[in-house]
Amino acid sequence: MDKGRAAAGRIRIGIGGWTYEPWRGSFYPEGLAQRRELEHASRRLTSIEVNGTYYGAQKPESFRKWHDETPEDFVFSLKAPRYATNRKVLADAGETIARFLSGGVMLLGDKLGPINWQFMATKKFEPADFEAFLKLLPASAEGRALRHVVEVRHESFRTPAFTEMLREHGVAAVVAADGKYPQIADPTAPFVYARIMGTSADEALGYSPAALDLWAERARIWAAGGLPEGLDHVGPNAVPGPRDVYLYVIGGHKAHNPQAAMALIERLG
């Protein structure tokens, strides 16, 4: 491996969840038992963002099962519970955050990736309250370092005050792309977390070959510490440095998302 590649961060590509009926017979082979779908998906992708944790608590046994069914270097990103983020006063979320992190999440061990704290599109940036929320996000749990990313969807967050606040706390902002949500592509943490939402029914691989090439190149640039062109930044350029990259093909024409993710993995070699 050359020095440039060695200095770059790790790139992981995935989708949202693994249970979706239209994937059966396309992404999943005909006749594959549903209980083996995670096993199949995790050997063709390098990460999955779990949606179920957003809607309700999961049993500790589920986290242990996910860990045991996936390859050694596979990673799960988890959506944090909506009860922590869908509230008027974010500073009051401490109990919900603690309950989530003590509910079996850490059974994923080394397979626990970033935790995505997703906010509703109506949630506006209130600096004092949002910083109070960031202070509630622990840097570690049970001796393991945690990575946090916030997915904000209101235009008021597109301000340097927000990105600087994230940078001070080492928290990333989701890079929303190819969809309807405002984009904040400023790197504010040692990793980048992108959710691309533009797959189409007209493309067999979800995206055109040119678009797949573009996203693969953007992932490489992020991993090497650079800033890809063509994305929206709101603050001054971050200090360059290698970053891990988590890129999920989400939304859009969901039936083709696994094909897009696999095509990106192939391009990244």
TrEMBL record:
Name of the protein in question: Uncharacterized protein YecE (DUF72 family)
Pfam families on file: DUF72 (PF01904)
Organism encoding this protein: Paracoccus versutus (Thiobacillus versutus)
SUPFAM superfamilies found in the cross-reference section: TM1631-like
Record-linked InterPro entries: DUF72, UPF0759_sf
